Amino acid sequence: MTSSTPPPGRIRNIAELARMAGVSAGTVSRALANKTLVNKETRERIQAIAREHGFRPNQMARRLRVQETRVIGIVVPLGHERRQHLSDPFFMTILGHLADALTENGYDIMLSRVIPDAEDWLERIVESGMLDGVVLIGQSTEFETIERVADYYRPMVVWGSHKPGQKQCTVGVDNRTGGRMAGEILVGRGCRKIAFLGDTSAIEFGERYLGVQDACAAAGLDAPIVLPVHIAADDMANDIIAHVARVGGQIDGIAAVSDLVAMHAVRALIDQGMAVPGKVAVTGFDDLPFAEQTVPRLTTISQHVADGARAMVEMLFARIAGNDTDSLIMQPEAIRRDTA
Q1: How far apart are CA 185 and CA 340, in angstroms?
Q2: Coil, helix or strand for 299?
C-alpha cells in the first residue's frame, strides 16, 4: 500500500520551508518564482534548500491564484452517437494536431468525451474554474447548447459548420460544398443511382448529404438514397455489410459520410463480388492518413484537418487574450485516387 506521508527530511509546504530558511512564507514564494524582489543570495539559498529537501511548489494552486491554469479543455460531444469512441481515426488525427499545437505553447490538455445528459453539460465544463479555454471537436446535435454558452464564454473555438449570424466561433470546411464535390465525382464517372452512406443527424453530416443531393439534382438524377450507419465502430461494419447485401446491386455510386465508412464500404462491396470502382464507385470524406494507404486507395474530400487544428489553437489564444475572432470557413478539396 502506498503512503501519502513524505519521506523523512522532505518539506511538505511553503510554511515549513520558510521556517527552515528563517524567512517569511511570502519571501519563499517570491524566491521560488525567481522574483528579483528577493536579493540573489537569499533567493539562491532558498532554492537550494528546496532542492535538497525535494520540495516542489503546487503549480496548479499558484495558477489558480493568478486566475490562470495553463490547461485547455478538448471536448468531444457525442449526442448523435453515444457509443462512438475517441479511438475513431478522425478524432485521433485532429486530437494529435491540437495536442501538438497546445503543448508546444506550454499548455496542458484535459480531454473529455461527453454524452450530453443534461441541458447544462457545457456550462459545467466552462465554469469549472479548471480551464483557460475550451476546444470543441464537432457540434453533434448540440448547436443550440453551444450557442447559449458562446453568448457569454469567449475563450472557446469549435470544429464544425458555420451558420449565418451564429455566436460561436467555428473552424471547418464548407461541408455542403464538400458533399457536392463528392456527388460530382460520382456523376462524372457515370453513376446514376447514388446512395449516401452515413448518419445525417449531426450538422456536418447533414450538410454533406445536402451537397450530394445538390450534385444529383444538377445532373437531373433522383435524390441519393440514405443508408443510415452507426458511427460507433462496434456497429458500423455490420450496418454497411447489411446495406450492401440489400441494395448493392441497385446502386452504382456511394458517397460515404467519412473515410472510415468509405473504407468499410469498399471492403463489403469487394467481399460480395462487386468491383470498386468498376461496379460501384465510392467516395469518402476527411482525407485521413489511411485514405491513401488502403487498397484500392480512397477517393475522398479533404477537410484540411491539420490546417484547421492549427487555426483553432491560434484563434483560441487570441480569444484568451481578450480579442474577438471571426469564424473560419475552409474550402474542401477533392482528392481523386482509385475508388471513384
Answers
A1: 7
A2: strand
Instruction: Tell me the whole-structure pTM to 2 decimals.
Output: 0.77
Residue partners of 326: CB distance under 8 A and separation at least 6: 169
The rounded distance, in Å, linking the Cα atoms of 22 and 116 is 53
Confidence of residue 5 (pLDDT cuts 50, 70, 90): very low
3-state secondary structure string across 91-148: HHHHHHHHHHHHHCCCCEEEEEEECCCCCCHHHHHHCCCCCCEEEEECCCCCHHHHHH
The set of cell numbers assigned to 11 is: 518539506
| Cβ within 8 Å of residue 116, ≥6 positions away | 77, 78, 79, 140, 141, 142, 145
Rounded to whole angstroms, the Cα distance separating 246 from 271 reads 14
DSSP secondary structure string for all residues of 140-205: TT-HHHHHHHHTT--SEEEES---TT-SS-EEEE-HHHHHHHHHHHHHHTT--SEEEES---SHHH
Which grid coordinates belong to 268?
Answer: 463489403
Residues 63-89 pLDDT 10s: 545 556 789 999 998 865 556 667 788
Dist. CA 206–CA 202, nearest whole Å: 6
Which letter does DSSP use for residue 289 in this model? G
Q: Is the peptide bond before 116 cis (omega within 30 degrees of 0)?
A: no
In a 10 Å sphere around its CB, with 0-12 CB exposed, 13-18 middle and 19+ buried, how is residue 293 labelled? exposed
Q: What is the pLDDT of residue 4?
A: 40
Which residues make beta-bridge pairs with 158?
136, 170
Residue 31 · residue 47 · CB < 8 Å: yes
Q: Is residue 255 within 8 Å of residue 298, measured between CB atoms?
A: no
φ, ψ of residue 61 in degrees (nearest 5): -60, -40
CA atoms within 13 A on the CB side of 5: 5
Question: How distant, in Å, are the alpha carbons of 46, 91, 213, 311 from that of 168?
Answer: 48, 21, 27, 15
C-alpha distance from residue 265 to each of 22, 251, 258 (Å)? 72, 13, 11
